[in-house]
Give the backbone structure.
Amino acid sequence: MPTLHINLAKIEHNTRLIADMLRRHGVRLVGVTKACQGNERVAGAMLAGGAAALADSRATSIDNLRAHFPNAELELMRPVIEAGNLSAAADIFFVSTEAQARTMMQLFPARPIRFCLMVEAGDGREGAPLSVATREAACIASLAGAELAGLATTLACVRPQAPLAGAMEAFSRAVAETDGLFEETDRASDSRAPLVSVGGSGLLALFDERGARPGLPGGRPSPLGTATELRSGEAILLGSLPSDRDGLFLSGAHSDAFRIEAPVLEAFEAGGGIRAVAGIGIQDVGLGRIIPAGEGIEPVGITSDYLILQCPAAAKEYCAAGASVSFIPTYYSLLAAMTSPYVEKIFH
């Protein structure tokens, strides 16, 4: 059975690294727990490392986080479609339209609700187009019992290669155009400052032209513009940044907070090396990549249950039947491994 080893201290370290970097620019960090199904131990490491709030897209995960962290601020990032997608435990609800906000208010008629309007600024994911964002924001702000808490966007996710600076500027203009709406709702809600929420981890690449070293020299203004918070999951969990380039990591971050161990079921000499069959497959890690930790080991095929490895002859000892091989997951393979009932999870 494959085993996923989870190092909580390394997750806490990565969180602190990013939170400290953002704090210098007046931006708070929101830890996204989607890849870990809202796991409370991972979330606890994020909070210990300086995350100011937690976010997830699944109602069951929000409920679990609330049960373990009654005082934490929670954001539900998935647009509301029906009651089954909704958790009353969240503090802020992301929606893309006034219609979604109205539907939610019908489901929870007895409580005031804080909404954050998602704006699609170039990534191609969810959110109101820039052309109608101001109108949708005004409609939400006019709903009785609703508060327009702020605006949000997601960049560097579906289209990690898309230019970020221009998209951030366009989103900042949308925020400026809705400024009056925030002033009205602030007076009705103890003058809370508008929330300007940006995600995800790929935006951290803006802090350095190579995306590898956080921090801005020379006192230049923050590349996140008017943002008040940044939502991050991948960079916290894996130290990596979504990018059109492989192997883009934050300097100083741990890339091995998660490690997968899989048993070698059989191994034969072949082609001047060793062909090994590991007991891990698509049922365990989906179609996301896993990166062998051993030097010279190369995945050459995968099925529902097996991963075929080509290993150098020098790897005979640790690619032998009965041994185990180690892998570092990428974001989507981590998501699958955390979800799979066939992968044992061990916390350190």
